[in-house]
Amino acid sequence: MSNPLIKPNDPRFKKPEILDAEGKNRFGESEQPVEEAPVQYEAYSAGPSDEARPFVPHYEAQQRSRGGLWLTLGWLGWGAAVLGGISLAGFFRGGWICPLLGAGPAGSAWLLAYEELKAIRVGAIDEAARPRTQHAFWLGFTGLVACLALVAAMVYRNMNFLPDI
Q1: Fewer C-beta neighbours within 10 Å, C or N terminus of the chain?
Q2: Where do the domains of the chain lie?
Q3: What is the pTM of this model?
Q4: CA 76, 78, 79, 81 torsion: positive or negative?
Q5: Is residue 138 within 8 Å of 67, Cβ to Cβ?
Q6: Around Cβ 126, how many Cβ atoms within 10 Å?
Q7: Which residues lie closer than 8 Å to 111 by C-beta, 6 or more apart?
């Protein structure tokens, strides 16, 4: 045994006796007939439309979609990528840190929209939110890739992300 404090014949771990003193099964059905009331309505019966697959659950949409917030985060990431691209081209000096800061909102839009798409798939969020959330998913993903590519290009060109003091 794995527990040294438990004795092999401990009464707490014995199975209950099935037979009583008379030798009858204590858990068996009684021999007296039980009068059954006529059943008019069964609450747990499957309806005619559910007969093919009665085990499939039906969910009510319990969460609210936040696709608009994920779209805003995705657009923030893309805006930071555009400012970083302008700064990389040399037209604007103040945007050197934008792609580094834009990776956060773009990445969070991508991951949170992915989680919301999973919730839509299982039925916790209404199906009508799927197009907006898919748009936010791809906007966040491409914004994250753009921001990371611009950060890599700035590192390659030896641009400083912090101003010279």
Answers
A1: C
A2: 67-156
A3: 0.59
A4: positive
A5: no
A6: 14
A7: 140
